[in-house]
Amino acid sequence: MHRRHAPRRSRRDDRAPAAVKFDGSNRAGLAKAITRASTAGVEQILAQDLAPEHEARRIGFTGPPGSGKSTLIANWAERRLQRGRSVGVLAIDPSSPISQGAILGDRIRMGSIDAGDRFFIRSVASTRLHDGLCHNALGILGVFDRWGFDDAVLETVGVGQAECNIRFMTGTVVLVLPPNSGDVIQAMKAGIMEIADIHVVNKSDLPEACTLTRELKSVLSLRRSTSTWTPKVIEVSATAATGFEELDATIDEHYDWYRENTDREAIRRKRIEYQLSEIVSHQLESLLADTDLDRYRSLAAVYTDVLPRLTKEDGY
């Protein structure tokens, strides 16, 4: 018989050893803290603080594969670093449906950043989740908070409408689209386009970029919204080194708006809902993997037997 007990905090302290702001003095400790968060079990996740005293400026970058998100983030991050800010990046890479292994290519693409001690990137596999995120993404972002980062970047794999959970995980959502994205806009406008604060037309040095910019502005002009923030469309080119100053300034502008107009308690409630849903989903997958489904004659029989066992796993 399982004994119920209150969740205990980990004996390991994942806070930065001294600094109020991250200065790179203990990168190994930070790496270990992120590893613990990315592999956290139920007990550790339940102990996480969803309303930290210091929360880094969280920026989410999303968009379809091939849109150039990683290169864009690298160029933008260099400008933040030049301003004396610290930048932590959680880059979520797609997993193989067969091996569940990740390509982890974001670390390669951002490896050229001359960041000194104020830049840190961790690539994490998207595992089996279907929203472009990874296990305990909120917990990993929380590590950046506790270690005093100025900016925490969440780069997702770009799976479209199901990815809208990025909205309450970050303060600013940047949607990155390449030229020739007309079909992408049709597929995404009912989902991720509705929650993006800034729309970036990447690779704007290509001739098709003007058409995409025009289409984006047309779609956004038809959108009904009660928000006082007007979504922006910005053309950016890493090749021509243009648009990054405007992007940087617009992210700051939106952050100021976000601080003044966002219901923090509503965000906290959404984060609680997401964390609990992730825990239950993960527990159910593990439970079903260990269950001999051949002995059940109906779906109802599986449901009746398995559901009570969910609350007994790991003492919960």
Give an overview in words.
The chain is α/β, with parallel strands linked by helices and 316 residues long. Helix content is 41%, strand content 12%. The chain is built from 12 helices and 7 strands. It has a 7-stranded parallel beta sheet with strand order 3-2-4-1-5-6-7, sandwiched between helices. Helix 1 runs antiparallel to helix 5, helix 3 packs across helix 10 and helix 11 packs across helix 12.
Structure classification: alpha/beta
Total strands: the figure is 7
Helix content: 40-55%
How many alpha or pi helices? 12
Low-pLDDT segments, ≥5 res: 1-13, 96-103
Q: Which fold name corresponds to the CATH topology of the largest domain?
A: Rossmann fold
Radius of gyration: 21 Å
CATH superfamily of the largest domain: P-loop containing nucleotide triphosphate hydrolases
Strand composition percent = 5-15%
At CATH level 2, the architecture of the largest domain is 3-Layer(aba) Sandwich
How are helices and strands ordered from N to C? HHEHEHEHEHEHHEHEHHH
CATH class of the largest domain reads: Alpha Beta
Strand order of the largest sheet: 3-2-4-1-5-6-7
Largest sheet: 7 strands, parallel
Q: What does the overall shape look like? A: globular
